[in-house]
Design goal:
Layout (H helix, E strand, L loop, with lengths): L1 H7 L5 H6 L2 E6 L2 E7 L14 H17 L6 E13 L7 E11 L3 E9 L5 E13 H7 L1
């Protein structure tokens, strides 16, 4: 089952590639991604990472964490809700996002995401609800 869920994380997604997001680790119900800070993602206060790039990183690390627990009878169905609290400018060479599943229900998974800078300081906090649906429903819709 681990190999099956590993295939579900879109490591070759063109948007992830555009931003430069790297999957650092993934385990049962958690994941960590890194975003190298380049000119493509700057645009915030004092040359920090743009808030939209941070929000995208929160969403992307969520995909990795959810894909680690989605069973063969479940279809990942998209982000239902995402909120980000920006706590300080994200400066440095890279930022990391770590997602942890707080609760997995039948149709929603709720996750907590910490975004930290290279010194380990919390720069943003995310909360995400991610939708699941039965895989059988997806097959009948196709």
């Amino acid at each position: 089952m681990v190999e099956d869920t590993a295939r579900r994380f879109p490591a070759d997604n063109p948007y992830h590639t555009l931003l430069g997001v790297e999957l650092v680790s993934r385990g049962r119900g958690q994941a960590r991604c890194r975003l190298p800070v380049t000119e493509k993602v700057r645009g915030g206060v004092a040359g920090s990472v743009h808030g939209g790039a941070i929000s995208a990183l929160v969403d992307i690390v969520t995909l990795a964490a959810v894909s680690s627990v989605a069973g063969p009878d479940e279809q990942m169905a998209g982000t239902a809700e995402l909120s980000v609290s920006y706590l300080r400018p994200a400066l440095g060479d890279a930022i990391d996002a770590e997602a942890r599943i707080l609760k997995k229900g039948r149709t929603l998974i709720v996750l907590d995401v910490d975004v930290t800078d290279g010194d380990g300081r919390l720069v943003a906090k995310g909360r995400v609800s991610y939708a699941l649906r039965p895989a059988a429903l997806t097959r009948t819709m196709a």
